[in-house]
## 1
Amino acid sequence: MIYLQLFIVFLKIGILGFGGGYAMLSLMQFEIVERYAWIDASEFADMVALSQMTPGPISINAATYTGFIIGGVFGSLLATFALMLPSIIIMLIITRFLTKQRNSFIIDKTLEYLKPVVAGLILSAAVIMMTPENFCDFGLNQNNISTIICIISFIAVFFLKINPIYLIIISGVAGYFVFK
């Protein structure tokens, strides 16, 4: 029964998670933390961090991790396959359709209208990840160091147009010295 639930949950996430891995995180958290309580919020935050560090798409890594926790190796294979299945089917259909309708006004407008939806899903994932498990202040209350690093990084990327790779390295070094 758990394998069927695992398959259905990740199939649903694969169908509804339009916009990529980060957009799927809010759906994953609702299903695996809140609805089924397979893992807690702290373990979900760890899973997201681990999924970001390992090669490959974050959603696939998170599905594999969750599947392994719930059902071992078979569970990880099942969850990963269920998450990818809708994308595979949709891409086969869309590829066939788009080759016939290359310069369609309706297609262009539909894709244009989907951009804010994807941005909203990614923003939702970012807001959901702002939990005490991810942002700690070491008793500094007003000077929450994690939040300060997050805000400075956002300003540096969005307004100052600094390369995110440099910020990841700088944030990692700062995090090492602050949180060691």
Note: Residues 64 and 76 are 4 Å apart (CA to CA).
## 2
Amino acid sequence: MLRYTSLEARDGGALERTFHVYVPSRVQGRVPLIVYLHGGAPATSTAALDQLVRSYDEFADGRAVPWRRNTPTCQLSFPRPPRFEVRFEDAQGQPCQPPAVSVTGNQPFILVLPEGLADDPADPASTDGQHWEDGRVPSPGQVGEAERRDDVGFVDHVLDVLSARPDVDPERLGITGGSNGGMMTLRLACHADDPRTPRLGRVSAFSVQVATLPEALHLGASGRRACPTRGQRPLPIAFFVANDVETPQCARFGCTSPTVNGDSRMPYGVPGGVYVVNSPDSGRVIAADDTHRRWVEYATASGAGAATQQTTTVGFFTSVRTTTFAGAPARVVVYETRGGLHGLSFPRNDYHGVARPLEFLLSWRLGPSGDLRYEPATGVFSGAW
């Protein structure tokens, strides 16, 4: 694991920024670069390095990753109150265990794990210690509306530094993240046409897990740059979300009437609504369907042409909505799981929650003149995913 540090000029001083780079030993020639943005993490952790337990390095290495997939007779339970335990159950609600399966990544890639900065110690409500300034107001773990660093510029800098490596394919850059990191991924996608962050304009695809668009980015409020409604090119983007679980977490926050379904932290919501994450925490977001539709409209306005949607299913609880366009290869894909949870349980074991986002990111190439190509090569993964 390589560790990079850089200094970010800020308010007359400098912030030390850190990112970690994992280069598998099997890398030969130029390979894709995948940036993973961590979610909110406790102050005692190193948030980025903690993500290595989530199979990203194993897939980059080509190691077989074991997991358990739902079967017709044994499935991951729907965590209804008062019992929120997550376990596999049979049709009678008794514990069971499906057989172990495995998935192997056959496409080597270089993994980048940037670090968010520590939360503001003046925030008495903060229970986590490391976040991205993802566009919510105030930023998670911060007090007040002002932003305290340039996370968008930091990730652009990371891409600029690493694109110069001789083993990185500059036409295959992907960004993904979950929760707070998922919102940050959306914010970065909103800057893909910003001349101040030119490397973000070279990202070939984005993947967003259990996250929706912050309201301030939707509206351009409180000093946050509005997410544009069109750009120089359409952006391939995949969403992995869950619904039909009560949220916010009333047991933790003392509320009495959850008003939106979601994945117990990240609201899914009803179109047209605006919601908070872990009420009464601040940081309003728009509904998931509104977020997805916004990116379909962005692609159409950016020259992709007329949109066509197709719906398929994966496993027992997941629908997959794939929007393609008449005039460009870009796609907007939504995996929506009924009863999924936050973190790695969001697919409810209908599919592997790391392999599927990676498969999407590894299927795109952006040429030097901006020509986008969809290259869903067979054999990127083998096994069950």
Note: The mean pLDDT is 91.
